[in-house]
Amino acid sequence: MMRIIDSNKINFESLKQAIAKPELYEKSTDRFWDDPYISQQMLDLHLNPEIESASKTKETIEKETSFIIQVTEMDKNKTVIDLGCGPGLYVREFAKTGAKITGVDISKNSLQYAVKNIQSDYENTEFKKMNYMDMDYQESFDIATMIFYDFSVLSEDEQSILLSRIHRALRKDGLFVLDVVTENRKPDLDERISVYESSFWSSKPHMEVFKVFMYENPKTEGHQYTIIDEEGYIRIIRFYNRLFNLDDITVLFKRHNFIIEKVYKNLMGEPLCGNSETFGIFARKI
Fold first, then answer.
1. Residue 133: its pLDDT value, please?
2. Residue 45 falls within a domain, yes or no?
3. Residue 19, Cα to own-chain centre: how many angstroms?
4. With a threshold of 0.70, does the pTM exceed it?
């Protein structure tokens, strides 16, 4: 773990490096989703029905699942995989159709909640702790979903790998349903330095340096949180959002043997417009 205190002095060169602009898609310095404190914070945000943060609001989830069920004709004869399912909020709504639903996520905390509160009520659901980049299903599902812009956070190489794995996991004519962020997205440029007794990232006193970086090839927004504790130890958390235009994502999907059949402003089915900040996409395996 990086430290910026050396012989009781601040090493400003180390601090400078810790807050500098990273290479595009440079990873975080630790697996923060495995941290017991952070994963509980994340679960609490998932389960707050009024806040769009770890999950969308309860109202939005209900509208999106209703529209997805309608367009995909999801019913008891369909099998569905929800990638990055979190605590299973979408799985629960999909399960009401009678379809067999598999939820995949990397968070142990979220999956424990899902098993206890959703699988116990819906025998047609199952949850698996897995990085969806590693899944190896073959023609097992009629529908795959990846919701809340998860696809946008992946690097170009990761997007290609994932599309290949989803294509293999889907049956003939299977559907991949997802939403992504578009080039119309206005970047959050509210950079800040804050000192906390505790926050989302740590239960102990710490300083947080939040910075936003823009990249042009491909057009991507990067968020970086540099967390510095009282002893000078540093953790760096990074998130990226690829900002797509419709031509780019159409070409990408075609290259991986998907055809985009329907595009909306979002997964609630609102009509696409010229300034849409997101796309809701229904792509079919070919």
1. 97
2. no
3. 24
4. yes
- Report the distance separating Cα 130 and Cα 33, nearest Å: 13
Query: Whole-angstrom Cα distance, residue 72 to residue 84?
Result: 19
Residue 283 C-beta-side C-alpha neighbours within 13 Å: 30
| HSE toward the beta carbon, residue 65, CA cutoff 13 A | 21
* 270 shares its domain with 167: yes
Is residue 170 a part of any domain in this protein?
Answer: yes
**Count of structural domains, the chain:** 2
Q: Is residue 233 within 8 Å of 2, Cβ to Cβ?
A: yes
| Distance from C-alpha of 99 to C-alpha of 92, rounded to nearest angstrom | 11
8 Å CB contact between 104 and 48: no
- Domain check: are 21 and 61 in the same one? no
Residue 240, burial from CB neighbour count under 10 angstroms (0-12, 13-18, 19+): buried
**Which residues, in sequence order, are CB contacts of 136 under 8 Å at separation 6+?**
165, 168
Sheet (strand 219-229) strand order: 2-3, 233-242, 219-229, 206-216, 192-196
If asked whether residues 248 and 279 sit together in one domain, one would say yes
Span 57-81, mean pLDDT? 98
